[in-house]
Design goal:
Layout (H helix, E strand, L loop, with lengths): L1 H10 L2 E2 L8 E3 L2 H7 L1 H29 L3 H48 L3 E3 L7 E2 L1 H8 L1
Parallel strand pairs: 2-3, 2-4
Antiparallel strand pairs: 1-3
Length: 141
Amino acid sequence: MKKILLTLALLSTVAISSNAAEKYATVNVDYVMSKYPAAQQATDWLRKEELSIQQFVLKAKQDIEQTPEAQKKAKEEKYNKELQTKAMNLRKQEEAKGKEIYSKFDAAVKTTAKAGGYTLVIPAALYGATDISDTVLKNLK
């Protein structure tokens, strides 16, 4: 989840045209996401789902080990299909949650940039730029 959000944040530099002098800001994406409840909930959810899949794999292995040799291949195929389905569903849900969080983050950055008169906001430390992470975090809530 963190990788998806960071990638999306890196792609979302905000440039707002203005006749005034250019004003730059940075946003610490990791900091904002660590304080943003929806991102924390999504991370917790992902960990829970990953744990569930790990438990599924362990139970499947135990079941296969206890299965007579003649039936092992059929059970392995059955469990592999289930595992692939679970993994695909998890990826889809993770992507959807990431997009939702990113959309809100992007809107908060744009709101903050516009309100502060910033012409460019980048998700990295830039010498001389103002860090607007706390204001973005307030706008997320």
